[in-house]
Predict the structure.
Amino acid sequence: MGKLYKFLKYFFITFWAVFVVAPFLWALTTSFKDFNSVNGGATYIPWVDFEPKLEGWRVLIKSPANGGVDIIEPYFNSLFVTCTASLISIVLGTLSAYALSRFTFKAGFVKNNDITFFFISQRIMPPIVLSIPFFLFLGAINLLDSLIGLIVVYIVLLMPIAVWIMVDFFNKVPREIDETALIDGCNPYQAFFKVVLPNSIPGLIVAGMFCIIFGWIDFFFAFILTFTEVQLLPVKIVALNSSITPWWSLSASALVSVAPLIIVAFIVERYLSKGNLSGAIK
Amino acid sequence: MNFKQKYVFLFPGLFVLIGILIFPIIFVVRLSLSGWNSYNGLNFIGLENYIRLFTDDPRFWESFFRLSFLSVTTVILQYVIGFALAHMVWKDIKFQRFFRVLFLIPMMTTPVIMTVIWRTFFHESLGPVNDILSNFGMSPKWLTDPVLAKVTVIIVEVWQWTPFMFLLLLAGLLSLPKEPFLAAAIDGASPVRKFLYVTFPLMAPISIGAIIIRLIEASKIMDTVYVLTSGGPGTSTETSSFYIFIKGLREFQMGYAASMSFTYLIIMIISLTVIAKVLTKLMLKD
C-alpha cells in the first residue's frame, strides 16, 4: 500500500507540475523564434531545433511606428486601475467588515449576516448583466473609455472580496483587544486604528492580494467599457492576438504581462502555510 | 458592543456599493421591458422581450445548457484534482513549498492572456500538442471540431482554476483539528479508511463552500471562450454571457439583451441556491 501510494502520488504531482508549466515553457521558447522556426511546425529546444532570435523581445520596447507592440502604456493603465480600485475596496471593505464583525445591526428583518451576504453575493452577479447598463450610464456621463469609469466598476468586483476576507479575519481577532482599548479610554475610532488595525496586517495583505489578482485578471469590463483612449493590458494582448501579430512577439508580450502576479503566488503560499487563510470559506 | 460610531464604519462601503449598483439593476429591469434604439431611446413594450425569449429563442436556452454543462464539468474536475493535489502536498512530501507555489501560479495569470498562448499550443498544424500526437498518426482539430472545442475549453478552464480550488481546500486541510487523526492512528486505521471516515467528512463544509464559490465563478465563463473559439465552431461553445454579449453589444438589441440577462441572473440565483442546499444535504448527511 505505502509504496504504491507513494509512487502514484509522485507520479500525479509530476504530471500536474508538467501540465502547469507546459504553456509557460512553450511561450518562452516561442518568444525566441522567428518566422522559419514557427511556420515549419513545432520546435522546442533552442540551438538544437532552431536558432534563437531576440526579435520577439525587441518589439516590447520599440515604438508602435517601428512595429512595436505598444504594451507599455496599457501596462501602466492596468497597474493604476488595479491598484486604485483595490485600495479603495480595501479601505471601504475593511471598515464595513469591522462594523459587521463587532457591532450589531438590525433594521427590520435585516441583520448582520444579511448585510454580509449582500456584500459577498455581488460576486454572483454575472458581469454581462451589469455591462449593458454600465455601458449606457458611463456613456451618458462621458466616463466611457476612461480610467475613472473602470475604477468605479472594479470597486463592485473587488469590494465583496475584501469584505469576505476581512469579516472572517476580524472574527478571529479577539474582542478583548478592542475592549481593553476602550476601557483604557480610547474612542471606537482610536481602538480600531491604533489597536485592531495593526493586529490585522496579515488579513489586510491577504485581502489586498486577492483584490489585486481579481482586478488584474479581469478582461470583460475593460473589453466592453474601453475602446481606444484607454487600453488595459488584457484587452491589448487580445487585440494583438486578433491582428496578425507574429507568435514570437505575442508570446513575449504575454509572458511579460503575466509575470508580475507570479510573485503574488509566493506571498499567498506564505500566508497559507501560516494558516491565515483557513476558515475564510466556512 | 454598541456605539453610534458603528454606522460610520459600515455605511461608506455599503452605500458606495449600493450607489454604484442600484441604478444599473433598476435600469436593466426597465430596459428589459423596452425596445431600444439610439434615435428615440426607450419605448415601453411590456413583456414582449420575455415572450420572445421564452417562446422563440432556442439559441439562448441551448447556450444556457451548454454553460451548465461546461461549468459543472469543469468544477467537478477541479474539485477532484484540486482535492487530490491539496491532500498530496498537505504533509510528508519533498519540496512541499515549491509544489504549493507552483500549483497556485495558474490562478495568478490573466485567463485571456494565457488563452492566447493556449491557442498557439493547440494550433492544428503548428502547435506542440498535435506535433506530439502526429507521431501516433492523429491530428485532432482542437478548436474547430464542435466536440473537441468543448474539451479544449474544459482543459483550459481546469488548468486556470484548479489552483483556486486547491488553495481553498489546502487552507481547509491546514485548519483541521489534530485530535481525530490521532484517534484514527491509535485505532490503526488504514490510509484509505482514514481519508473516507476522517478527512473527507471533516472537509465537507469547506468542500461545499469551495464548490459553490467555483460554480459562481465558472458560471461567468466567457472571456476564455471569446478568445479561444469565439463561441464557435458555429455556436458549439457559446455560453449564455457570450450570447447576451453578441445580442446586446454587437447587434445592439439592448432591450432584448437586458431581458435575457435579467432572466439569466434569476436562474443563476435560483439554481445556485438549490445546488447549495442539495450539496449541504448530500455531504453533511452523517
About this structure: Chain A has two domains: 2-53, 70-273.
